[in-house]
Amino acid sequence: AGVANVFAQATWTNEWADVLIGDEPAAAYNDIAYPFTVDNRGATTGRYRIQFTSATAFQCYLEDVGGIGSGNITTDFAPTNPLTGQPYFEIDADGWGSGWASGNVLRFNINGASYPLWFARCTLPGPIDEPSDAVRVELRGDAD
């Protein structure tokens, strides 16, 4: 799993773009000195936004899920993925700095180790030929 495309914008425009829309805020998160921590067990692929509700408090959203947690810049933030019981990611409080204002947004993408799957069971109409059936699925993966 990994984090990409970290940027901040002054206001949220209701558009999940992968580039800055409008102006940058006065503040910035220092993701070079304090990179986000992601783990294959909890990270979910998607676009995330942290939207400030005050100079120190914020709400976190995942594009396809909605709100996933709230936090503040004085403590580390690690919202729990309810499907795995592990954090989606962790943000170090030391990376925030000062100058954040209500309405500011920190946007980033996460590329999770899991890939979305879809299973469909298809049966032909007619009499039952086999009284029972089963399937086994083994998911395997690799990362460079």
What does this structure look like?
- The chain is an all-beta fold and 144 residues long.
- It has one domain (1-119).
- The chain contains no helices and 5 strands.
- It has strands at residues 2-9, 46-52, 57-62, 66-72, 105-111.
- A 5-stranded antiparallel beta sheet has the order 1-5-2-3-4, with no helix packed on it.
- The radius of gyration is 20 Å and the shape is elongated.
Rg of Cα set: 20 Å
**Biggest sheet: strand arrangement:** 1-5-2-3-4
Number of domains: 1
Distance between the termini: 10 Å
Structural class: mainly beta
| Overall helicity | under 10%
Query: What percentage of amino acids are in beta strands?
Result: 15-25%
The helix count comes to 0
Strands, count: 5
Which series of helices and strands comes N to C? EEEEE
Shape: elongated
Oligomeric state of this protein: single chain
Low-confidence sequence ranges: none
Largest sheet geometry: 5 strands, antiparallel
Overall pLDDT metric? 91
